[in-house]
Design goal:
The structure is a homodimer of 323-residue chains.
Chain A (H helix, E strand, L loop, with lengths): L4 H6 L5 E3 L8 H9 L4 E4 L5 H14 L4 E4 L7 H10 L4 E5 L4 H8 L4 E6 L2 H10 L3 E5 L5 E4 L4 H12 L4 E4 L5 H9 L5 E3 L1 H4 L8 H9 L5 E4 L1 H6 L7 E6 L2 H6 L3 H6 L1 H13 L23 H24 L1
Parallel strand pairs in A: 1-9, 2-3, 3-4, 4-5, 5-6, 6-8, 8-9
Antiparallel strand pairs in A: 7-11, 10-11
Helix pairs in contact in A: 2-3, 2-15, 3-4, 6-7, 8-15
Chain lengths: 323, 323
């Protein structure tokens, strides 16, 4: 059976981590992934500490296996949310988009492991120096918020070379067994997957978003800052978000300076359109791996299929290629 | 020994194609790659038909193995250059950035195989319908000109799923044996590599560019259109170029509208700076895989090492992972 260093580190069966996506990864999804032997993550930012507490408790009612919570660390309420995660002794915590150092130390004092998600080799080096237990190297093809620097394929080996013995998982571009087998060849210790798990029965993304993901292809998603500018979203400048092309991105992507100037007006227009049920300006977050996602499945089934496919590829393809 | 369908298709020993980079891939580089068992490609666009004829003849003096010529098909002199390639019966021709259909037919009449480089699933479908013998699926991490759509990791399997039996090679992000082993797991039939071969002894890139590539990392390259706008370069709007961050990109990337307006003035300034030997505005083309390129090597040695490393990984890593 497929085993990597993150299986021992996080005490899980399979080297698959479901991304802690705000608005998508609630306790049901995390529990289903963990129960199937992966590491299920709750997207901890957004609704607040009470919601987070409920989701953590929900996971513990469903499974006694390890799970985690991930934060948009640059968001203003991270301190408060971290308190909840630490108080409830969540086994694994993930950070992204801001300096994780103080949080890593606070977690380590309670024997909680930290994964840091990075978008460049430089950020990986900083995370390693700050004491990350594992690093998620996130490429430009990832869904939702990600960096502009590099695709996953060249980023992962560069990060592996940089951080030595710290396990690196590949984030962005993996949605099936082929992708998992591929990143393991790069030296990754597993895959961190978002888009594939958005299209799961347990994700709390709305049915419209799930339908859009399974019915669109790799070409249909673009990396943009237009919504973040309008929404004053708490992300650093080197980060954008990969979303489905829609009427709003068609009108404004590439005109960011103008979007900044007309922010208040555009925010009002957007809110009115969304209120009126206009899906043509809805923000659907997903990565290019949506091209490989064609069905909404139970999350546990997703874990099982990806592991099974990756194992089959690793067993057969090298022999076919090497003759 | 590692064999894939492109080995039979192009009658080469190894599933490695050196990218036909204008200004970098002359006859010496193509000949060295082909002599080592890869498919060496001449970057056919730029200096004109007489230069192209000389490079093709140079390859044939060095080796009797198959090689190819690749074009920036959107450039205005492609018809004339194609005439030379067809007249000299170059075994393989590659196209990118414009509709290849008429060229594929003309080549097929002479039993010449065409590789089409694409940046999206849609372009892959068009290339397959037009009769491409193989498709190079190029991700956003590639060096020099590439698309904005997707990283190589999710693009390759999506293209493989789309084009059925036509062999797909992965372009962008591969510079070592790990990358080759990875893309083979995705279902690719080989890798198309640029950056690694720019830093070869035989490439005609100048020593300054080679030094910059081996001394910079994955984070140091960005995808931009600023030089293309200033230079009126013959590329479609969905294409930019990945280059080393420098003083010019620091000043102008993200201000493309202004660059368009001040094009003539900026072109004069750039020309004057370059004339005066100012390297801080030199355009150094490379992909994020530069992070894995640390030495200038003979191209044949590059081919041998990558194949050797990929074979070693494919022999050992699946067993280690599967236990």
């Amino acid at each position: 059976m497929l085993r990597t260093p993150i299986c021992d580190l996080f005490r899980v069966e399979h080297p698959i981590i479901s991304a802690p996506m705000a608005g998508s990864s609630g306790g049901e999804l995390a529990a289903a992934v963990s129960a199937a032997g992966g590491l299920g993550m709750i997207g901890g930012s957004g609704p607040g500490p009470e919601w987070l507490r409920e989701q953590i408790e929900l996971v513990r009612r469903r499974t006694d296996r390890p799970f985690g919570v991930g934060f948009i660390t640059s968001a203003p309420d991270t301190d408060q949310l971290m308190e909840t995660a630490l108080e409830l002794r969540v086994p694994v915590i993930a950070h992204a988009f801001a300096d994780p150092s103080p949080y890593i130390r606070a977690a380590a004092d309670l024997d909680i492991l930290t994964i840091v998600q990075v978008q460049s080799v430089e950020l990986a080096r900083e995370a390693a120096n700050a004491g990350a237990a594992a690093i998620a190297a996130q490429g430009i093809e990832a869904g939702g918020h990600t960096g502009y620097t590099s695709g996953t394929l060249p980023l992962v080996p560069a990060v592996v070379d940089e951080v030595g013995d710290i396990p690196v998982v590949a984030a962005g571009g993996v949605a099936d067994g082929r992708g998992l087998a591929a990143v393991l060849m790069l030296g990754a210790a597993g895959a961190w997957m978002g888009t594939r798990f958005v299209a799961s029965e347990e994700s709390i993304s709305d049915p419209y978003a799930k339908e859009q993901i399974i019915s669109h292809g790799a070409d249909d998603f673009l990396l943009t800052r237009v919504y973040d500018i309008v929404n004053d979203a708490p992300f650093p400048e080197h980060v954008g978000e990969r979303i489905l092309r829609n009427r709003f991105t068609a009108a404004w992507h590439g005109r960011e300076d103008e979007v900044s100037l007309r922010k208040a007006e555009l925010a009002r227009e957007l809110a009115a359109s969304l209120e009126a049920g206009d899906t043509s300006v809805r923000r659907v977050l997903a990565g290019n791996s949506a091209g490989m996602v064609r069905d909404i499945l139970p999350a546990g089934e997703i874990v099982r299929r990806i592991v099974e496919d990756a194992e089959a590829i690793l067993r057969s393809r090298p022999g076919e290629l090497l003759g």
